[in-house]
Write a structure and sequence with these properties.
Oligomer: heterodimer
Distance between the termini of chain B: 34 Å
Order of helices and strands of chain B: EEEEEEEEE
Distance between the termini of chain A: 40 Å
Largest interface: A-B, 23 and 26 residues
Order of helices and strands of chain A: EEEEEEEEEEE
Chain lengths: 119, 107
């Protein structure tokens, strides 16, 4: 069974930094791309960033490019999202997701972790 | 960036009725790269349909997807009580892999 256990959310001031982690189990981690998706309170889903299974290539939404960095440690089966220069509108629940084997569809989701950016 | 528009914003139906949700893209999308997700209150989303028409593992056959080019749809043949939720489409062929704004299916 695929499991994605997220940690690292919390409260941070504008301009601050935070790192999210997602510990994966139940599948061949380095064989699948992974992504982060966020959802602001009461709003829809926003795709944030993605990374190939090898870790060699990354993709970002324009809204986070240059501020967020997605990475992975395949030896530990863990996905990361390093967030810096945080803004109030980065406040959201952040979901770690696993992609399907045939493309970037998101076939497994973590439980989500809340990030609140406020002074 | 491909922009996805979903309609209607809210669909008010009764159990047993048929629901048809629309997803329109700002430019042509590969049928291999269009997905639908369901999100219930307080829960993470879950994958329903990928490649426009393929049901994800464990999804009942009352859910079906269709479409090509810029117009796609999700049909729920006979609504069950557990189907009342928000549904999102997503394009995942060209980064950034955008989501539509969602359609809420309510009783």
């Amino acid at each position: 069974e695929v499991q994605l256990f997220q940690s690292g959310g919390g409260f941070v001031q504008p301009g601050g930094s935070l790192r999210l982690s997602c510990a994966a189990s139940g599948f061949n981690f380095n064989g699948y791309g992974m992504t982060w998706v966020r959802q602001a309170p009461g709003k829809g889903l926003e795709w944030v960033a993605g990374i190939l299974g090898s870790g060699r290539r990354t993709y970002y939404a324009d809204s986070v490019k240059g501020r967020f960095t997605i990475s992975r440690d395949n030896s530990r089966g863990t996905l990361f999202l390093q967030m810096s220069s945080l803004r109030a509108n980065d406040t959201a629940v952040y979901y770690c997701t696993k992609t399907g084997g045939t493309g970037w569809q998101l076939d497994s989701w973590g439980h989500g972790t809340m990030v609140i950016v406020s002074s | 960036e491909i922009v996805l528009t979903q309609s209607p914003g809210t669909l008010s139906l009764s159990p047993g009725e048929r629901a048809t949700l629309s997803c329109r893209a700002s430019r042509s999308v590969s049928s291999a790269s269009l997905a639908w997700y369901q999100q219930k209150p307080g829960q993470a989303p879950s994958l329903l349909i990928y490649s426009a028409s393929r049901r994800a593992t464990g999804i009942p056959d009352r859910f079906s997807g269709s479409g090509s080019g810029t117009d796609f749809s999700l049909t729920i043949r006979r609504l069950e009580p557990e189907d009342f939720a928000v549904y999102y489409c997503q394009e995942y062929g060209t980064s950034p892999f955008t989501f539509g704004p969602g359609t809420k299916v309510e009783i």
